[in-house]
Amino acid sequence: MFLNKNKKNKIITEEYDNVNYNNYGMNEMDYEEAIEKEPKSRIVTNIIFIIIIALGIMITADIIFITKYDKGPYFAIRTKTYEDGGTQVFYGLGYKVIKYHQEQGRRDTQVGLWTMPYSVEPTNISALDLAIEFRNDPEKTADKFSGEFVRVTGRIYKIKDKELILRYKDPDDAYTLKIKCPMAEKNNFEGMEKGLEVTVIGTIENFTLATKENTNIVTMSNCFAE
User: Fold this and answer.
1) CA distance to 36, 91, 97, per residue, from 77 (Å)
2) Whether pLDDT at 192 is above 80
3) Is the CB of residue 172 less than 8 Å from the CB of residue 192?
4) For the chain, what are the domain ranges?
């Protein structure tokens, strides 16, 4: 009886040892289905992740080509062309591109969100005001005006083949500023001469701080003399 009892206990113990507690409450069919579903979910997750990365690369590349090289957009769809000389609007995944091409006006390219408006009204500023703002706070002025479509009034300092250079100069030379205005189209500058006050519209590209050799400089692009 004693030996039999031990054998019985041994058999019972071995049976419990073979139980997989991780799958307790699941039958064999449920367990097999769970194993089959897990790899499929991983594949779907990986595919979604790869698609997101690919779209991110495409969007980033498109924005770089537009802003740095004035090319494209390659991954956005043109939705509208304005009858203002040929301004085009493009929509991409989460971004919007407006390539301005007025007959005599705005000619730059803007990238922003889908809510970005079509805007061809320039910000009015004099060479004097721009010189004072830039001299007093260069970083703030650069953030405020870089990429801004403006109408600047100042006096002609120099005339080149396709470029007007305006300048504001104060007696102490503390706020002296040159404004380089390359023309969007060929201009014969008839009737223009040094010292004449003119108004120029265009997009501000960048600001350059003064050095020992040069004063503060503002560089514009796609300009028209009014």
Assistant:
1) 41, 5, 9
2) yes
3) no
4) 26-120, 123-225
Q: Find out whether 157 and 148 touch, Cβ atoms under 8 Å.
A: no
**The one-letter amino acid at 35:** I
User: Both tokens of residue 136?
Assistant: 């007093």
> Which option is the CATH number for 123-225: 3.30.470.20, 2.40.50.140, 2.40.50.90, 3.40.50.720?
2.40.50.140
- Determine the pLDDT at residue 223: 96
Q: Show Cβ contacts of residue 142 under 8 Å, excluding neighbours closer than 6 positions.
A: 134, 206, 207
User: Which DSSP letter does residue 183 get?
Assistant: B
Average pLDDT, the chain: 86
Residues 6+ apart with CB under 8 A from 40: none
Taking Cα atoms as reference points, which of 206, 193, 124 lies closest to residue 165? 193
d(CA 52, CA 45): 11
Per-residue confidence at 208, pLDDT binned at 50, 70, 90?
very high
Backbone angles phi, psi at 218, to 5 degrees: -115, 130
pLDDT at residue 112 above 90?
yes
- Please tell me the predicted confidence (pLDDT) of residue 21: 47
Segment 97-107 mean pLDDT = 96
